[in-house]
Amino acid sequence: MTNISIRPNVEAFFDKRTFSVQYVVSDPETGACAIIDPVLDFDEKSGATATINADRILNYVEAAKLKVEWILDTHPHADHFSAAHYLHMQTGAPCAIGSHVVDVQALWKGIYNWEEFEPDGSQWHRLFEHGESFRIGELNASVMFSPGHTLASITYVIGDAAFVHDTLFMPDSGTARTDFPGGSAEQLWQSIQGILALPDETRLFVGHDYQPDGRSPMWQSSVGEQKASNSHLSRCQTKEEFIALREARDKTLPMPKLILPALQINLNAGRLPEPEANGTRYLKIPLNALGSVIWD
């Protein structure tokens, strides 16, 4: 249950290459903090990786004299690499994700033909269950299971702030797609109802902003604002209307350009593949694994 009288500090870091928003949420009293959904830089044209985004976060943490207690992912991302493992190596803080990540691992183990991969969530230090609580300094944080976009999506509720990943976008951008393997428009509708049951004053922080009509990046709204003006929800009075709208829109969307490279990294908690005998790391791209596609 959110406590809107407790207001953590939230610093956002927008990655313009993937339209991702990364967060540092901190306890004003103790300086303890958590890093949420960090990005490991990847250039699909050259195969280059870098830690530009993650180091920017670390520089902020150092300048603000914060102590990293958690590195949190909301779900296995399909559009960027997670920097969770890199940040764990830099800070020693444990990495965590929702417990249903094992369902996504099992699904994609077959797609990637990963014979040696263990789909048991052991790649993270902690798997959170729905309703579970944990601490960030003196802040109480809780976990809401929010499937629909993926089988494993969760929302972190920390004081008056909720980190809603890709379930909701800014009101002018609507809601998340549900056409990835394991996605469900019906589950997304139910997850949204749970988020909108939080107090209207609850601050909502989104995982992406695609800047409709070229506006500047935005990432913070509120439960009340989403209820009043979300561009998808305002057109749907019932679950059935929402499912029809969401599924029709999903049929028009191309796959994210990084989905196949990203998930083999992110289902391993941000670890890159081990180097082969020549010292080089290789990504594995299954061909024609996702069925029919929209060509863009």
Q: What topology does this entry show?
A:
Layout: E1 9-15, E2 20-26, E3 32-36, E4 39-43, E5 48-50, H1 52-63, E6 67-72, E7 81-82, H2 84-91, E8 95-98, H3 101-112, E9 126-128, E10 133-136, E11 139-145, E12 154-158, E13 161-163, H4 185-196, E14 203-205, E15 220-222, H5 223-229, H6 239-250, H7 259-266
Parallel strand pairs: 3-6, 6-8, 8-9, 13-14
Antiparallel strand pairs: 1-2, 2-3, 4-5, 4-7, 10-11, 11-12, 12-13, 14-15
Helix pairs in contact: 4-6
Quick recap of the structure?
It contains seven helices and 15 strands.
Describe this structure in words.
The protein has 296 residues and is of the alpha/beta class. It has one domain: Metallo-beta-lactamase, Chain A, CATH 3.60.15.10. Helix content is 24%, strand content 23%. The chain contains seven helices and 15 strands. The strands form three sheets. It has a six-stranded mixed sheet, with helices on one face. Strands 10-11-12-13-14-15 form a six-stranded mixed sheet. Strands 5-4-7 form a three-stranded antiparallel sheet. A hairpin with a 2-residue loop joins strand 12 (154-158) and strand 13 (161-163). The termini are far apart.
> Reading side by side through the largest sheet, how are the strands ordered?
1-2-3-6-8-9
Instruction: Kindly provide the name of the CATH class.
Output: Alpha Beta
Helix/strand/pairing class, anyone? alpha/beta
Largest sheet features: 6 strands, mixed
Count the strands?
Answer: 15
Distance between the termini: 43 Å
**Tertiary shape:** globular
Quote the beta fraction.
Answer: 15-25%
Q: Please give the CATH architecture.
A: 4-Layer Sandwich
